Amino acid sequence: xxxxxxxxxxxxxxxxxxxxxxxxxxxxxxxxxxxxxxxxxxxxxxxxxxxxxxxxxxxxxxxxxxxxxxxxxxxxxxxxxxxxxxxxxxxxxxxxxxxxxxxxxxxxxxxxxxxxxxxxxxxxxxxxxxxxxxxxxxxxxxxxxxxxxxxxxxxxxxxxxxxxxxxxxxxxxxxxxxxxxxxxxxxxxxxxxxxxxxxxxxxxxxxxxxxxxxxxxxxxxxxxxxxxxxxxxxxxxxxxxxxxxxxxxxxxxxxxxxxxxxxxxxxxxxxxxxxxxxxxxxxxxxxxxxxxxxxxxxxxxxxxxxxxxxxxxxxxxxxxxxxxxxxxxxxxxxxxxxxxxxxxxxxxxxxxxxxxxxxxxxxxxxxxxxxxxxxxxxxxxxxxxx
Length: 386
Fold this sequence. Notes:
- With 386 residues, this protein is of the alpha/beta class.
- The chain contains 15 helices and five strands.
- The N and C termini lie far apart (50 Å).
- α4 links the parallel β2 and β3 (109-113).
- A five-stranded parallel sheet has the order 2-3-4-1-5, sandwiched between helices.
- It has three domains: 3-162, P-loop containing nucleotide triphosphate hydrolases (Rossmann fold, 3-Layer(aba) Sandwich), CATH 3.40.50.300; 168-205; 226-248 and 280-375, Zinc Finger, Delta Prime, domain 3 (Up-down Bundle), CATH 1.20.272.
- The relative contact order is 0.09.
- Helix content is 60%, strand content 6%.
- The chain has helices at 11-22, 41-54, 59-71, 89-99, 121-132, 152-155, 168-179, 183-192, 197-205, 207-221, 226-262, 276-317, 329-338, 341-359, 364-375; strands spanning 30-34, 77-80, 109-113, 138-144, 159-162.
């Protein structure tokens, strides 16, 4: 299986990048890959990077290069991926400095920036200078949800490749082919993740993740009063927090073990005073990432609730379309009869408002309370963002 096989439903984008990698004379040195969350932006970026770094290699060399890219250890590959809210200007300055070096073993030096939309305008201007006059053997690959998320001057200096939303069938087939997931489970995971490839894999392979999602839907369906909305909001924050901890715990343990090995410290041994600062810096990074992970977990909860109220609206309107939450159709049909399409559409507006409020640093529990109260029809209007 090649790096390109990690993608699904993106034949046009794959063909464009494969053609570029095969023809050095036609290569563009600054690329932007856009697409909705879960469409495979990062996977496509690293598949392209692999192809560029493998140029002119034998089969054995190409296999080693693919393994190095997968481990992010190739000497001519630089990657910037942040778990923070923004990418810092110092991180981009470091990358720009690296971009000036000639490649050591490959035809190109490749630099990938995931979530390039997290750069402020000042940081973007630092990158812009590097994109205006890139060294002849350096290739920049940026990833973002939309070209509109970057400043116009950067957009004008990159070649954009747009990804489309894959279908449920395409994502399910990928899970079966690549990960050996049982077809029925793969189809359900693809549907409930709304074709987000990474989330589909998690739902297909993690029973606890499936249980947390089911609890989210059940909590929202069970809200019957203002006090019930307050209690449900607290429980949803707990679900999101548990989900975030599950995502980060294993990674943090691996990072700490790797740091101890690099410092020459045996497992279980005391850390010498002179080396504690190195571990302290790692712990601070992990705390910042945990904060971001909880925020992302709450947003996942809200996305799942959007699928719930979308399904209710479709049932109430008699649209005859497939449901995202097909596995709980009987419960949805009961809830649909008890409510109205107008109320379900108002709930979707309330969720959008909650996402904006949380982005503006409203405490998540308060934003979720207000959203659930509005979704249950206990208030006549949503009001305006606070």
